[in-house]
Amino acid sequence: MSVAELKERHAAATETVNALRERLKQKRLSLLDTDGMWILEIFYFIAGYARSQARTPVSFGPTDLVCCRTLQGHTGKVYSLDWTQEKNRIVSASQDGRLIVWNALTSQKIHAIKLPCAWVMTCAFSPTGQSVACGGLDSVCSIFNLNSPMDKDGYSPVSKMLSGHKGYVSSCQYVPDEDTHLITSSGDQTCVLWDITTGLRTSVFGGEFQSGHTADVLSVSINGSNSRMFVSGSCDATARLWDTRVASRAVRTFHGHEGDVNTVRFFPDGNRFGTGSDDGTCRLFDIRTGHQLQVYYQQHGDNDVPHVTSIAFSISGRLLFAGYSNGDCFVWDTLLAKVVLNLGSLQNSHEGRISCLGLSADGSALCTGSWDTNLKIWAFGGHRRVV
Amino acid sequence: MSSVEASGVDDGTEYSFAVEYSGPPITYDLPRAVPINVERIPVAAVVAQVSLCDKLSLPVVQPLLAPDPRSRKFSRELKMLSSETTTVVSPTSVIAFDRSNESRGDSKELELGSEATVSPSSVTAFEERDTANQGCVLSGELSSSGALEFSNGRYGSGELSDVANSSRALGSSSISHERSRELLRRAGSSSTIEFCDSFDKSLGSSMELRVSNGRRKESLDSNNYLNQADWVSNESVLSFDYPSSRVSSMKVVDCKTEANCDVRRMPVVTFRDLESDDSFFGQGTQEEPETMPVKRVCQSKGKKGSCYRCFKGNRFTEKEVCIVCDAKYCSNCVLRAMGSMPEGRKCVPCIGFTIDESKRGSLGKCSRMLKRLLNDLEVRQIMRAEKFCEANQLPPEYVCVNGQPLSHEELVMLQTCPNPPKKLKPGNYWYDKVSGLWGKLAGVQCAGNPHFWVNDDGSYQEEGQKNTRGYIWGKAGTKLACALLSLPVPSKFSNSCGEQVSNQFNRTLPDYLEQRTLQKLLLIGFNGSGASTIFKQAKILYKAIPFSGEEQENIKLKIQSNLYGYFGIILEGRERFEEEALIELKNKHSSSIIDPSGNVVDNDNKTIYSIGPRPKAFSDWLLKNMVSGNLEAIFPAATREYAPLVEELWSNSAIQATYSRRSELEMLPSVASYFLERAVSILRTDYEPSNLDILNAEGVTSSNGLACVDFSFSPSAPDDDIDAADQNDSLLRYQLIKVHARGLGENCKWLEMFEDVGMVIFCVALSDYDQFYDDGSGSITNKMMQSRKLFESIVNHPTFDQMDFLLILNKFDLLEEKIERVPLTQCDWFDDFHPVISPFRSSSNSTSSNNSPSVGQLAFHYIAVKFKRLYSSLTGRKLYVSLVKGLEPESVDLALKYAREILKWDEERANFNLSEHSIYSTEGSPFSP
């Protein structure tokens, strides 16, 4: 078979694939159209609910949400943070090659862990708060026990290395209430459920299987009310819902975004999840119907649309916090899709891109991490109760 | 103690003063004066004036013992000196005036046989001075002993009571004795110490205690001891300040602390320690020899504000100040007093001494006077010398970081780091190694009202601070309150978590030394471009131990299991070839011989690819494992067991026959033959992979992640011209970060993590032009085109906007070999490659001796230009290209050194741009291309 012949074949095959893809798109659109009325119904229901339940949209005074702590100590861009379940501890991962565990109340550093590979992208606290996990470009998810002493070089011994990914580890999260299981997402287009005690893969989601992601997976989020379900966001502009018992195929695939899905986060009730994407939008999807419920998009004057880097829901779900690559951090009213507040415009806000954010377990404080190397803790400064 | 003059102690009067005592040594207890007024309790000691000059090491002084033995010892010591000492004691003590001190003073006088002046206590402003001393002053002789005195008639009790304590004064006078002894022995110098107290109840009376140790007229060396404070008139309060600052400067010598002009506190500390804890003094003096050279202090005999040399002028005439001794010279004298100023503005005797820390800020800042006196060039040279000469540098032990003085190396490192602290001043600093933050320790902890946080164990901390401020359970008040209110008290304190952590932080303190200049080089290459070979080569080249024992073991296992993999491929090939051969055989049989029975076929079933049953079983087992995909899991353990079998298999003729047809086995990588030919030795248990083995091995560096290695170019490297800059280079460290192209993802999302790298090294295999790559989805692309695509996407990435790129064209050896067989035009991008080939070129030997380049070289240049054009069309800048043979250490070394040169040039270019008067502008230069 000559090269010319090969090329010809390739061109033909590409054409076919493109044609099929187009047909798929058409089909999907038409499906959405037929369902349109129904979606609208849901939307009206939500809006009506919003009107009845909260006649006035959420409004914040200037002092309602204030930056009450600045956690300084990293010397590189902060890429990830996570809160503990119980205590007010935060672990943060930065490009200076360190994990720092903070006491959020006193802003003290409790642990500083020097990583063997400085290019860390994600970190997570175990549910018991005894260990932290992190992953990055070394394609390994490392577990550190916080109780083990450091060796003479200042390195904490890695208590477990979860190796097996063929690409960078972009995100990791412990399965709630289990210190022994962890889900990671990776640049090799897969998500993996790990058994930490053995250090082996329990199941691999995606990859060679057909219904997996077709590009790098950037984020995972485990359903808080049903820890068997988790959702993943990927560079293929989709989010997928997975059941840990069924690794072979995704339960559902959520289309809608026009750019890489950088972040996914389950809604507190576990029936919805939010996504944030490079197209500058955040979306709310329903896992039962598989439909998109809401789009959160702020019109920008110029063409440069800031990417959504990270999102988090308030404990009631009424507020959606979204960090943007231009340093903005919007607080959205999830029901009305209105921006309530921009933390980026407040006093002593971050100077760089907001790369990660997270809400404390009791919902009383928000922590944001930024490329300006700092983390900031935001809490209600007034007398209001947390919504 | 031959002649001790009687000291008249009048117990009945309020005053006590010294009278000559000629009787036998006192046997009775001398009565002590009792403090009368609480308000008069002194809190600070009398100031002392010490002028020191020594280039020699200070002798270690024995620690002083109890007061009484001390006085005896003193007199002995002083006897040894056999020097003339004038001691003027006018004790007017009401407060704790120790009798023994008095007698000590007396004995000193008497033994030295000098005149003792007894001053009545009611005398105000005691101004007695040795005539000889004055003579010295008047004659302008350099070695005159100055007298510092200050008394205060009017402010006596109010102002001075806190600094004056006669017993302490004597204590300090004992220092001066010690000191003067040292001085006299060594330099023959003189010093004058005066102590002046005034704390009489009756206002206006003053006491002067003058201990003048030795008017050393014979000490005609150049050292000049001028007491600045001498001309200070008695009645001014100002006069009080001078000696006190002198005390603090003496303190520097004593205690090795920074020059601290804390007027009040320091003397108190010193003298209290001296009296109450004698061992302190011992320690203090023992440390003295380390603080060489000590500070010099100058005294002027002229009137206030006059020049120190000609004694003319007043305080308004313009003067230049010596940065060591604070001597001021008018414009006529300055050049004579300071000479050629090899270390900046220091008077000649001060050269070689450390500067006065309070003048550090003015280093290198020229005065108007100097500018007028000297020409521009001289001024610049002097200011340069002042700033950079060794004696004027900040002594490292003055900089305390986290309670520990820096060593010399640490200070050098600190000042050569990429971001050195500007205007480093002596002092106590804190440094947080985790955050990298640092600052000066201040007395105050926190502005405003800090919040306190109480831990479980009762320790409490300030908000945001690391150190524990205290334990609530350790406080008496808490215990009392708990007892009163019958609150529960913890039985024992559990070990606090916070403390543990702080220990951990302290332990790894020298970590900040790591933050030296580190240049990062990002090495990216498409699959099979040889980037990992270059990475391994760098490791072998620049690391003393390229691979640790564990790594070595892993590499060994990797090579061995790779080898089994190659075997598997061969065995698979063998089966295929056997089948093909059998079919062929059958066809041959069926066509040539018509045989009804199957016997013949059975007989002829053996081809050259057939193997015996035992190897066959092994081969089947191996293939089965390969299919199930757990080859790696099995083989490290099985290596030893199966090594003989493999050996047997390898020598099998069928395998050899298959191996000879290896070009037909697509799966078999080209390096496989390298290993297969060494199969027998590799599979031995005592096999140690050689460097070449490691370089050839696949998958040794983490194939899917990222690998980095820190190294520095060794200065002893061959063919590296040794110049001054290279010395510096050994300090510079480089980090080579290898990133796998597959890990990059589609849109290189995380390249922004590498925004701090100094340069991107992009690796392309020259031999890729006829190779095809299957990206998994069935589409096949030329590998060279794939490389080009990756190159474009990385060059266009916003993170690498202004980044330098070095293109490494790797595998030139393969290209040279291949280009003879396969034309370069195989790749679409290179379809216009039509080299002009010299007809005289010998076809086989490409490295011809004549000047005409080989096709390989032509192709290299052609490809390099292609990439360069592509790069400049994308960025408008220049692409650096280097030719490398990955397996040859020298060529990799050259390429990485080239990268270093580019980085260096970048730094220098920045310097050129910064300097305003640069005459080396690259713009408009006729030589610029």
Automatic annotation (TrEMBL), chain A:
<feature type="repeat" description="WD">
    <location>
        <begin position="254"/>
        <end position="295"/>
    </location>
</feature>
<dbReference type="Pfam" id="PF25391">
    <property type="entry name" value="WD40_Gbeta"/>
</dbReference>
<keyword id="KW-0677">Repeat</keyword>
<dbReference type="GO" id="GO:0007165">
    <property type="term" value="P:signal transduction"/>
</dbReference>
<protein>
    <submittedName>
        <fullName>Guanine nucleotide-binding protein subunit beta-2</fullName>
    </submittedName>
</protein>
<dbReference type="InterPro" id="IPR015943">
    <property type="entry name" value="WD40/YVTN_repeat-like_dom_sf"/>
</dbReference>
<keyword id="KW-0853">WD repeat</keyword>
<dbReference type="InterPro" id="IPR036322">
    <property type="entry name" value="WD40_repeat_dom_sf"/>
</dbReference>
<dbReference type="InterPro" id="IPR019775">
    <property type="entry name" value="WD40_repeat_CS"/>
</dbReference>
<feature type="repeat" description="WD">
    <location>
        <begin position="210"/>
        <end position="252"/>
    </location>
</feature>
<keyword id="KW-0807">Transducer</keyword>
<dbReference type="InterPro" id="IPR001632">
    <property type="entry name" value="WD40_G-protein_beta-like"/>
</dbReference>
<dbReference type="GO" id="GO:0005886">
    <property type="term" value="C:plasma membrane"/>
</dbReference>
<dbReference type="InterPro" id="IPR020472">
    <property type="entry name" value="WD40_PAC1"/>
</dbReference>
<feature type="repeat" description="WD">
    <location>
        <begin position="162"/>
        <end position="204"/>
    </location>
</feature>
<comment type="similarity">
    <text>Belongs to the WD repeat G protein beta family.</text>
</comment>
<dbReference type="InterPro" id="IPR016346">
    <property type="entry name" value="G-protein_beta_1-5"/>
</dbReference>
<feature type="repeat" description="WD">
    <location>
        <begin position="71"/>
        <end position="112"/>
    </location>
</feature>
<feature type="repeat" description="WD">
    <location>
        <begin position="347"/>
        <end position="378"/>
    </location>
</feature>
<dbReference type="InterPro" id="IPR001680">
    <property type="entry name" value="WD40_rpt"/>
</dbReference>
TrEMBL record, chain B:
<comment type="similarity">
    <text>Belongs to the G-alpha family. XLG subfamily.</text>
</comment>
<dbReference type="Pfam" id="PF00503">
    <property type="entry name" value="G-alpha"/>
</dbReference>
<dbReference type="GO" id="GO:0005634">
    <property type="term" value="C:nucleus"/>
</dbReference>
<dbReference type="GO" id="GO:0008270">
    <property type="term" value="F:zinc ion binding"/>
</dbReference>
<feature type="binding site">
    <location>
        <position position="703"/>
    </location>
    <ligand>
        <name>Mg(2+)</name>
    </ligand>
</feature>
<dbReference type="InterPro" id="IPR001019">
    <property type="entry name" value="Gprotein_alpha_su"/>
</dbReference>
<keyword id="KW-0106">Calcium</keyword>
<feature type="binding site">
    <location>
        <position position="532"/>
    </location>
    <ligand>
        <name>Mg(2+)</name>
    </ligand>
</feature>
<keyword id="KW-0807">Transducer</keyword>
<dbReference type="InterPro" id="IPR027417">
    <property type="entry name" value="P-loop_NTPase"/>
</dbReference>
<dbReference type="InterPro" id="IPR011025">
    <property type="entry name" value="GproteinA_insert"/>
</dbReference>
<keyword id="KW-0460">Magnesium</keyword>
<protein>
    <submittedName>
        <fullName>Extra-large guanine nucleotide-binding protein 1</fullName>
    </submittedName>
</protein>
<feature type="binding site">
    <location>
        <begin position="810"/>
        <end position="813"/>
    </location>
    <ligand>
        <name>GTP</name>
    </ligand>
</feature>
<dbReference type="GO" id="GO:0005525">
    <property type="term" value="F:GTP binding"/>
</dbReference>
<keyword id="KW-0539">Nucleus</keyword>
<dbReference type="GO" id="GO:0007186">
    <property type="term" value="P:G protein-coupled receptor signaling pathway"/>
</dbReference>
<keyword id="KW-0479">Metal-binding</keyword>
<keyword id="KW-0862">Zinc</keyword>
<keyword id="KW-0342">GTP-binding</keyword>
<keyword id="KW-0547">Nucleotide-binding</keyword>
<dbReference type="InterPro" id="IPR053057">
    <property type="entry name" value="XLG_GTP-binding"/>
</dbReference>
